[in-house]
Amino acid sequence: MNQLKSQLAESLSSVLSSLSFPKKDYSLAPPKHQEFGDLSSNICLVLAKDLNKNPMEIGKAIANALLVDLPEHISDVTVTPPGFINFKIFETFYQSQVQIILNNSDKSISKKNVLDIGCGGGLISEFLAKKKAQVTGIDENICSIKQAKKHAKINSVRIKYLNQSLDSFFKKNKKKFDLILCLEVLEHVNDVEKILDKITKLLNPGATLILSTINRNLKSLIFAKIFGEYILNWIPIGTHQFEKFLKPEEISELLKLKKIKIKKIKGLEFNPILNKWLLSDNTDINYFIVGKK
Questions:
Q1: In this model, does residue 9 exceed pLDDT 90?
Q2: Tell me, what's the pLDDT at 141?
Q3: Phi, psi of 67 (to 5 degrees)
Q4: CA 189, 285, 62, 48: dihedral to nearest 10 degrees?
């Protein structure tokens, strides 16, 4: 634990230095390297606005949270070598996504038209296709689509995979869907309202929409951004931009404007003792929103 705190102190010192906060206020050692290069002063400014606080107070809160209030079992969490993705951790993340989908699908999803936006390598798409859903998976990453197609062929699963952005798909597509998934996508887009407008127009009347993303607050900055990318190395550095994280109420308001009824908001928490992700009522970091047209 002491070694982890020392590592955090060194990393945080670099963060605060880049944010132009005086290091003497945080009792941190001078940084030996600049490892938070993708973080900017906008982080503290965004938090300050959300919490109605002075940016300096936010900087102190980050320092205190990281150096004092570490979770009791955080030292037991799996640390991944830099440059690698922790697929074991993401397996339980994927299982939680499957659980929320099954819990919120009306009866059977057999023969239902499903759109998986940002389908990646096709884990969710393939699972639903095996449940006899008519699945279309879209992703801008050509490597992900190639991998998804290859895996579907090996497993003899019929899925329509397209290497397209939502914008491109929306212009060419004429079909409506009974279930649309947009999982871990919204925190990467520049215009969330525009994306949600297109998604809701693709829904059939009575269709279900399931979104998942990351909340925007001090806790999510620490654990989703700093811990996930820089300390535990679960995902590559720079994967997330804190400024693009979204509060549940922000998405809910946008969906209500599109005549989407919010059915459920559910959190997703990492349990460091079990080393796995579990559904919960805590939406502080990762969360799902289920809506119905």
A1: no
A2: 92
A3: -95, -15
A4: 60
75-101 core/surface letters (b: 16 or more CB in 10 A; e: else): eebeebeeeeebeebeebbbebbebbb
Q: What is the pLDDT of residue 50?
A: 65
Edge to edge, what strands does the sheet with 286-292 contain? 160-162, 134-138, 113-117, 177-183, 203-214, 286-292, 261-271, 276-280
Map residue 17 onto helix, strand or coil: helix
Q: What is the DSSP letter of 124?
A: H
Instruction: Kindly state the helix (H) or strand (E) to which residue 280 belongs, with its residue range.
Output: strand 276-280
98's enclosing H/E stretch is helix 87-103
Residue of 161 and 67 predicted with greater confidence: 161
- Count of all residues that appear for the chain in the document: 293
Read off the pLDDT of residues 218-240 as tens digits, 9 standing for 90 and up: 888 888 887 777 766 677 777 88
Q: How many CB atoms lie within 10 A of CB 111?
A: 10
Please tell me the distance from the alpha carbon of residue 26 to that of residue 39, in angstroms, as a whole number.
Answer: 18
Closest CA to 239 of 250, 230, 231, 229: 229
Q: Which domains does the chain have, with CATH numbers?
A: 2-70 (no CATH), 87-292 (3.40.50.150)
Per residue in 191-217, pLDDT (tens digit) is 999 999 999 999 999 999 999 999 998
Report residue 143 as tokens: 């490597």
